[in-house]
Structures are given as C-alpha cells and as structure tokens.
Design brief:
Blueprint (H helix, E strand, L loop, with lengths): L1 H16 L4 E4 L4 E3 L1 E5 L3 E6 L3 E6 L3 E14 L4 E9 L2 E6 L2 E6 L3 E5 L1 H11 L7 E12 L4 E14 L3 E16 L2 E18 L4 E12 L4 E17 L3 E16 L4 E18 L2 E11 L7 E14 L2 E12 L9 E13 L5
Antiparallel strand pairs: 1-2, 1-6, 3-4, 3-10, 4-5, 6-7, 6-10, 7-8, 8-9, 11-12, 11-22, 12-13, 13-14, 14-15, 15-16, 16-17, 17-18, 18-19, 19-20, 20-21, 21-22
Length: about 350
C-alpha cells in the first residue's frame, strides 16, 4: 500500500512538472512547448522535439502559458504574468490579479529572457552591436615591368533603435617601375564617419565628418565636417534608403601651396539592400556645392557589392567616382576607381 501511494505521488509530481504551455491551431493541431514571443504576425514556440517553431498568428486559435510573460501594450504599458487567450482577448494573471486585454491592444508578448535581451538592445555599450568588414586587394607584376597595386577598404555600422554610427574608409596605392625609376600611379585615402540620431520614426539629424588625401591630385589634405537633417524613405529589414541635406565646411591644402576654405551645402542619399543573408549591395551619392564660390563644387559616388562565400570570408567589388569641378591646373576633374578582392566580415551582415 505504501509503495502504491509513493508511485501515485511520483506520478502526480511528474504531471505537475509537465510543460503547461500549449498552442491550439485553428485546424485542430496542438503544439506543446515554451512560448518565446508573439507579435501581430508571428507566434514563436520553443519545443523539445523541433527547436523553435514560428507559427502565423492568424493560424492560432488559442494559447496559454503558466510561466510569467511580459505583455507590452500598444500604449507602451507593460503587464507581467501568466497568459492565456480568451476569445479575442489575452488574460494576464499577474500579482495584482487577472487583467483582460483585447488582442488589438497587444503590441508584443515576450518571455522574461527575451524581454531582458530586448531592453539591453535599446541601450548597448558603444563597443557592442557593430557589423561590417574589410577588404584587401593586391596585384604584382615583375619582369619586363614592375608594378604594385594595393587596395584597402573598411566599413563598420552600429545601429540601435534611436541612433546609428557608420564608418567607411578606402585607400588605393599603385606604383610602376621603369629604368630603375619608381612612379606612383595612385596614392589616395578617403574616409568618413557619420552619426544619425532619430528625431521621429522617419526624421533624423546627422553629423558627417569626411577627410583624406590624393597625391596624384596634389591634394595633401581635405577635411570636411557637416550636419543637417535626413529622412528614412525606406527602412525595412532588407532595404534602406536615406536622403539628407545640410550645411558644412571644407578645408583643402594642396602641395602647390593652394589653400581653400569653403562653406558648402551637403546633399546626399544612401541606399542598401540585402539580396540574401550573405549578399548585399550599398550605394551612396553626395553633392557638395560651395556657397562662397559660385559654380565650384565636388561630388562623390560609391557602389559596393559584398558576398559571403565561406564563413566570414567575402568577395568584394567597389566602384568609386570623385568629381572636383575646379581641380588644380594640369589635373583632371574626375577620378574613377574600381577595386575587387577578398574580405572579412564581422557582425550580422555584410555591408
């Protein structure tokens, strides 16, 4: 008799320990597991037999969870407690009692662990959340002609729900040797740092600092800070398009002794699209008309493709065009640059 009582007690304990979270679909199927999150489109359930399962919200008839869940309403209020659906509402059984919330007023439901991760993502440390990569191209020829070509590139991006940092840098160095005389055919470096701060969902303020040199253009130094407002025309997970405008300052120092100080307008657009999780393109166009020198301006266009082919290794192709309407005497107003090579990525996606 004692053994029978012990067995019954063990069975009861085991039943209590069974997962109590269950999802019933409109077609009658049932999924048992741990509810991870639910938004207006998807319900995610972690199961022991199939890992995480994502279910269309419209296919769900009802669900329940005895573990505490964090329910965020559309008015940003947060309620915590065990949840279950009842008709077109969610019942949250919290410490202060049951609260019935219409499904239309529910923005998202998360597990405590997912909620903690989400809140941390809102305020990451400055060294967290970066993604991007670098590329390297090398060309050598020895024999009847001696040439060396080195192309370097780097980009990094850190985006949160409130702001974004982006860094880009490119460099091209090329020499040829004939009759024991080495002549550079390219020697330049250009880089930019941009910071965006969201003012609304679409509107943002930006600060942009660019600089570099181009010895073949006799440009020893160019520094150009600017700032203004921008607009997120497209802001989806796979495609982004920003347009912006503002005002800035340009300082140029040439090896001829020429020094320029310009007040410039800043007009630009920046586009990005991820075709797949491993392949992305980026494109940007900036126009800088000088306000204190009518008819003088410069522009910069960049286009890049990055495709990941093995772990963090990528193949990269970059095309750039820098235009200066009034170059120093004897120099052309347009510089084109095409580079390709291998690269390495870090973070979530190639840029």
């Amino acid at each position: 008799m004692v053994r029978i009582c012990v067995c019954i007690a063990l069975v009861c304990c085991f039943c209590v320990a069974l997962p109590a979270e269950q999802v019933t679909l409109k077609n009658g199927d049932r999924v048992t597991g741990t509810i991870v999150s639910m938004d207006g489109k998807k319900l995610t359930v972690k199961t022991d037999y199939a890992g995480a399962i994502t279910i269309d919200r419209d296919a769900v008839a009802q669900f329940s969870s005895q573990q505490p869940m964090v329910v965020t309403k559309t008015d940003k209020q947060v309620v915590t407690g065990a949840v279950n659906t009842q008709d077109s509402s969610v019942v949250v059984n919290g410490a202060s009692g049951a609260q019935t919330i219409p499904l239309t007023d529910v923005a998202i439901i998360r597990s405590p662990a997912d909620q903690a991760a989400y809140e941390k993502s809102l305020h990451p440390g400055f060294l967290e959340g970066w993604g991007g990569g670098g590329n390297f191209g090398l060309g050598l020829a020895r024999g009847n002609s001696d040439t060396t070509n080195v192309a370097l590139g780097f980009n990094a991006d850190r985006k949160t729900t409130t702001d974004e940092w982006s860094i880009v840098a490119t460099s091209l160095y090329s020499t040829s040797t004939a009759n024991n005389v080495t002549t550079p055919s390219a020697n330049n470096f250009f880089g930019a740092i941009r910071y965006d701060r969201n003012l609304t969902k679409r509107l943002f303020a930006f600060g942009l600092f660019g600089g570099g040199y181009d010895h073949l253009q006799l440009l020893d130094e160019r520094l150009s800070p600017s700032g203004g407002l921008g607009f997120h025309v497209i802001a989806s997970k796979t495609t982004t398009l920003d347009v912006l405008g503002g005002i800035g300052y340009t300082y140029e120092n040439y090896s001829t002794g020429l020094v320029n100080n310009f007040i410039n307008a800043t007009v630009g657009e920046q586009f990005g699209h991820n075709f797949t999780p491993s392949t992305a393109i980026t494109e940007s166009l900036y126009f800088f008309p000088y306000l204190n020198d009518a008819g003088n301006y410069r522009g910069a266009f960049n286009f890049g493709v990055a495709s990941k082919f093995y772990r963090a290794l990528t193949w990269n192709l970059n095309f750039g065009d820098v235009y200066n309407s009034v170059p120093v005497p004897g120099k052309r107003d347009n510089d084109l640059q095409l580079t390709t090579g291998l690269g390495i990525t870090f973070g979530a996606k190639p840029k």
